[in-house]
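Researcher: I'd like a structural prediction for the single chain below. Treat it as a standalone chain; there are no partners to consider.
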Amino acid sequence: MFENKTIMITGGTGSFGNAFIQRYIDSDVKKIVIFSRDEEKQDKMRLLYQNPKLKFIIGDVRDYSHLYNSMKNIDIVFHAAAFKQVPSCEFAPLEATKTNVFGTDNVINVAIERGVSDVVCLSTGKAVYAINAMGLSKALMEKVIINKARELREDGECKTKLKFIRFSNVFATRGSAINIFTQQIKNAQPVTVTNPDMKRSIMTMDEAVDLAVFAMENGECGDLFIYKAKRTSLRELVEYLFEIYDAKNREIQVIGARHGEKLEETILSDDELLRSVDMGDFVRVRMDRRGLNYVNKEFKTQNRRKAQQVPPKIETQVPELTLEYLKNIIQKHNLIHTLQCI
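Model: Treating it as a single chain, here is the predicted structure.
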């Protein structure tokens, strides 16, 4: 699917960029362009892969003109650059907004000007019924994508297909709970848990790449895609890790929820569920194409399902995470030995 294509990954030195490169660098892709702010991470990445198909550009998605110059001859963009850490965004909401909202707007507008065929923007389940600055900024980012997709559709053919995906919590990415828990278990320390009853959907980085590529291949302009990630409580997750690593100290220390944390997260809103299409491991949500004039035939046609009962939440349709599944993931991907990855 990427034969002779040039792909740009914004924020490409992160976990998603590394996972994508590891999967596709030896394919028939023409070039992968890593666009990011961190010079040190780019240097480490260059030395790690040493592959002529990789091109590195230092830049910030907030800088429109540099982004425009950098996106020449790009076929596909995976937009991963973002402020992602909940506490950091909570204490710097304006900075999160500048990158997550205005930076995304820059990426979209440059991609349209440059004739990029597909743009897949990475979002998060925290954007659904958002209560923290990271989720709020990502929710507004999604609105920017949808609005631009609506404009493109109204103008005729959508030559640049804008799509977005929502990640659940991803195993072993920087700052993730599993990294902290594992390190504490290895050091025979008490495991610090915000709230043992917190429920989270969890996916691997391989599944995250699967989701992004599936959205790129199957999405139309304005579509949202999610992956049916497995569910678990923090208590269950820690107990499983105790078992896997034969922990000497099995003490759980409850430290209380951080700023802006929910007890239970969801990946789709009720309104989105009404527009959802089950696609096996993935769910597609078609864009609400209505304009400001709600009294029209399109509104009546698209909203017949509104009279029906809202479908069950995705979280009730997926299996719980199991000890065996967690063991297999850790062994298969050697996750714990890559916690200090780029």
